[in-house]
Every structure is written in structure tokens, then in C-alpha cells.
Design a protein that fits this description.
Layout (H helix, E strand, L loop, with lengths): L3 H8 L10 E13 L13 E9 L1 E5 L2 E5 L3 E5 L5 E4 L5 E12 L3 E2 H4 L5 E3 L2 H20 L4 H24 L9 H19 L7 H8 L3 H12 L3 H19 L4 H7 L5 H12 L3 H8 L6
Helix pairs in contact: 3-4, 5-6, 9-10
């Protein structure tokens, strides 16, 4: 039975681009049949390849990471990765889309979004993926006036749907330090963390932090949560509370002064936030952890 939630997902065809400065170029697209003896090139060319499995299945080693595709799943290959077919050998069918997608004309979207190599797609997003890839094939075949815009739009839609499915499956996923995705994130994350520390006494906004990262606010918020496990504003609040803890332990500043120094509206605002985080008032925390307040 089609539930209300399923109906909403099925009818919601709006594409919310993962970033506002994304450019896509489709190099080639086709529905292909891969025999049991088919072997991929040892190294992926200088473009991305999306395989949308429609029948059969296959296993691959992508940069040493084993990934299996079955009907309703995708394999997403970044430029330059090493690729090896793994047993068992079997035939499979898939839509193959060779494309280039860049942020600001230079950063690879698949790499920046840390999209997974293999991903099982939910039923309704899978229908949308099939719709878009078929439209791309039709538009490239006919090449009627305006076909470039349609191809670009549906290439963007493919990535948007995969990105949303990825975020849904990750939930509160947090990147492990030391991974390639974490290292890539450091380029934009480091200045954001510095801005949060430097502006601890201010109530910084999401738009301001996204501007520091040079990313669209919605995309920035999702990437930040992916890396840290919390939203940017929650992280900023946590840092302000930590600064308040430090001042309570190490100084005799009145609570109202600490509130002003850590970006809270007033002492009452700090007390409410502190009780929520610590289960006690700032004054009690100071008695337990540090000095007594000078009266």
C-alpha cells in the first residue's frame, strides 16, 4: 500500500541543487550489457563514471575497497581510481553515465561530497534516477534546441538524488579523522573552526560561517554535520559553553560578564543553556569545579 510518506516522496520532483555553483558535463551515456568476462580498465579515466545496475550483479575492488552492485544500486567512480573485477564472474546490465561535475569549476563534486563508491538506492529515488538517465539519453539522441540545459539539469538531479540518499543512510554519520574525506574537508573546515573560536563572543549565523567556507549554506550545513556529527550552530554553541566553563573555573568573573564574553544575550540566557548542558547552574558549577565567585 502507498503510504502518505511514500506518496509525498514520489510526487516531490523538486531538485534542490547540492550547491549553487555546480556545473555538469555528460560525456557519454548508454544502457549497456556487461558479459561475465568483461574487465574494466585498470585505472578510471579523468572523469566520473556512474553505473546504475538494472539486472544481474558484479563485485569490484575500487582502490582496494570491495564494492558489490545489484539491481537498484549504483557504483560511483572518481577520476583516477584503480578498478578490478572480483569473483564471482557474472553478467550484468547497467546504465553507464560518464560525466564531469565541478564546484567553482575546479573541485570534483563526488570527492567534495564524499559520495560512497557503492550505494543501494531507495525504491522511489531509484525511479527518479531512471527517469533522469532516460531523459539524458533522449536529449543527447535528439539534440533539439535547448538540449544542453536539459542534460545539465538531469545530470545535477542524478547527483542530488544520490547525495540525498547518502545523507539519509548516514544519519548522524561522523567522518573518522585520517580518512581521505576528512583530509579533504580540512581545507574548508579549518577556517570555519578558527572563525568560531575567534568570534566566541558573538552570535555567529549559519550564513556567515558558510561564507567563510565559501559554500552554499545548505550544502555547508550538511557537510559540517557529516564531519563533526552536529550542525554548525550546535557546534558553535558547544564551543561557547566550553569557553564559559573555562572562565568559570579559571576566573572570578561574574556570570553576567562571562555571558557577554561568550555570546549569550544575558546571564539568564547563559544560565538556561548551562543548566541544559550540565544539569546545574554556572554558580554551582564554579563551586564544584573552580573558584568561588567574588561578591
Amino acid at each position: 500500500m502507498l503510504t502518505p510518506a511514500m506518496a509525498q516522496d514520489l510526487t516531490d520532483e523538486r531538485v534542490e541543487p547540492i550547491v549553487s555553483n555546480l556545473t555538469c558535463s555528460v560525456l557519454e551515456v548508454a544502457l549497456r550489457q556487461f558479459g561475465a568476462d568483461w574487465q574494466p580498465p585498470e585505472r578510471q579515466p579523468a572523469h566520473n563514471t556512474l553505473l546504475m545496475c538494472t539486472e544481474g550483479g558484479a563485485a569490484f575492488a575500487v582502490d582496494g575497497e570491495v564494492a558489490r552492485v545489484t539491481p537498484g544500486s549504483v557504483l560511483l567512480l572518481r577520476p583516477g581510481v584503480t578498478l578490478e573485477r572480483r569473483p564471482p564472474a557474472s553478467a550484468f546490465g547497467a546504465y553507464e553515465v560518464d560525466f564531469i561535475a565541478k564546484l567553482d569549476g575546479r573541485r570534483d563534486v563526488v570527492e567534495e561530497c564524499a559520495l560512497p563508491v557503492a550505494l543501494r538506492i531507495g525504491a522511489f529515488r531509484w525511479l527518479k534516477l531512471l527517469e533522469s538517465v532516460r531523459i539524458i539519453i533522449t536529449q543527447l539522441g535528439k539534440r533539439t534546441p535547448g538540449y544542453e540545459l536539459a542534460v545539465h539539469s538531469h545530470c545535477t538531479r542524478l547527483l542530488d538524488l544520490i547525495w540525498k540518499e547518502t545523507l539519509q543512510k548516514r544519519g548522524q554519520y561522523r567522518m573518522a579523522p585520517g580518512t581521505r574525506a576528512w583530509r579533504n574537508a580540512k581545507d574548508w573546515l579549518t577556517p570555519v573552526l578558527k572563525a568560531i573560536e575567534d568570534r566566541c563572543a558573538e552570535r555567529v549565523t549559519l550564513a556567515e560561517l558558510a561564507e567563510v567556507a565559501n559554500l552554499h549554506p545548505a550544502y555547508f550545513s550538511s557537510r559540517f554535520r557529516q564531519v563533526t556529527g552536529v550542525s554548525p550552530l550546535t557546534f558553535a554553541m558547544q564551543r561557547r559553553l566550553q569557553r564559559a566553563r573555562d572562565l568559570l573555573r579559571q576566573t572570578d568573573q561574574p556570570v553576567r560578564s562571562i555571558a557577554a564574553d561568550t555570546g549569550f544575550y544575558d546571564a539568564a540566557h547563559l544560565i538556561r543553556a548551562f543548566r541544559s548542558a550540565e544539569g546545574m547552574s554556572p554558580g554551582h558549577y564554579r563551586k564544584v569545579k573552580g573558584r568561588a565567585v567574588a561578591r
